[in-house]
Write a structure and sequence with these properties.
It holds the Pfam family TctC. The chain is of the alpha/beta class. It is built from eleven helices and nine strands. The termini are far apart.
């Protein structure tokens, strides 16, 4: 009798688990969702996240709370999400640093490709090479000449190892074969504040963080890192137009969930992301910031996973050649 009771209990437990899983997914989300941004508030990735989180929350019928967990080039926030319960209530919105950290960091607290489930790509943001408003060089050619002649004096701000601004700067220095004095910050928000105040000379940052400052004449723009000019900055030449071919980099963003999240929940999140990217306000705000939503084909788990894998392969040799690593 006891053996039968135990057996009945085990069978019932499995049956209950089977029923509760889909039922819970059907009710998802039943409470607010946290979306982790692995950088400080006020930066470009934070801006993208808040726009998308608001639109997705409206579609899902629950608030998506944005939480900034900065530090270690985005790996602290990513690590937190990797360890979170895979219930769909803790998500990560990360940029290209998700790919480069796989090579930059000797020891990561997670397996980049296998510690997450994928929701979809969000956007691919152009970069701009900018400087304080009163910086002497007037165009990209004179900037390169000035940087080479004053490499020990020119200061380049970035948001820390692995940040988009760090990667863009690393590529720029590689292209001009000159190492500048770098000043790392905990985010592009404080870096931009010091650039505006004249405490540092230059930086490379996403249009989501620089467009309004460029239009307002508060900083000087030398080039964009795109093949074509950015629609919101028609007077800023591409790097190739300005005389630096091959200086191309876009900072793509994607949404991730902890590994083991149910397919039903992931499907809801992907559908919500695709709906959010068609929201007129998101489209307009993205355009104002110099970017555009990802296509429906890209805003999928397969689209994001393929992008992440290819970007790891693309940046690994660049980082190894530069000999830049972090513990």
């Amino acid at each position: 009798m006891r053996r039968t009771s135990v057996r009945t209990f085990v069978v019932a437990a499995f049956a209950t688990a089977f029923v509760i899983g889909p039922a819970a997914a059907a009710d998802y989300p039943a409470r607010p969702i946290t979306m982790v941004v692995p950088f400080s508030a006020g930066g470009p990735t934070d801006t993208v996240t808040r726009l998308v989180a608001e639109a997705m929350g409206k579609d899902l019928g629950q608030q998506i709370v944005v939480e900034n967990v900065g530090g270690a080039g985005g790996t602290l926030g990513a690590g937190r999400v990797a360890k979170a319960d895979p219930d769909g209530y803790t998500l990560l919105l990360h940029h290209i640093g998700m790919a480069t950290s796989a090579t930059l960091y000797r020891k990561l607290p997670y397996d980049t490709l296998n510690a997450f489930d994928y929701v979809g790509l969000v956007t691919d943001v152009p970069m701009t090479l900018v400087a304080r408003a009163d910086f002497e060089p007037t165009d990209l050619k004179s900037l390169i000449e000035y940087a080479k002649a004053n490499k020990d004096k020119v200061t380049y701000a970035n948001a820390g190892v692995g940040a988009a601004s760090h990667l863009c700067g690393m590529l720029f220095m590689s292209k001009i074969e000159t190492v500048l004095t770098t000043v790392p910050y905990k985010g592009t928000g404080p870096a931009m504040t010091d650039l505006l105040g004249g405490q540092v000379d230059m930086m490379c940052d996403q249009t989501t963080n620089t467009t309004n400052q460029i239009k307002g004449g508060k900083i000087k723009a030398y080039a964009t890192t795109t093949k074509q000019r950015v629609a919101s900055l028609p007077d800023v030449p591409t790097a190739e137009e300005a005389g630096l071919p091959g200086f191309e980099v876009g900072i793509w963003h994607g949404i991730y969930a902890p590994k083991g999240t149910s397919p039903e929940v992931l499907a809801k999140l992907t559908a919500s992301l695709q709906t959010a990217l068609k929201d007129p306000n998101v489209i307009k705000r993205f355009a104002d910031l110099g970017t555009a939503p990802s296509s429906e084909a890209e805003a999928t788990p397969d689209g994001l996973k393929a992008k992440l894998s290819s970007e790891i392969d693309r940046w690994a040799p660049v980082i190894k050649a530069a000999g830049v690593y972090a513990d």
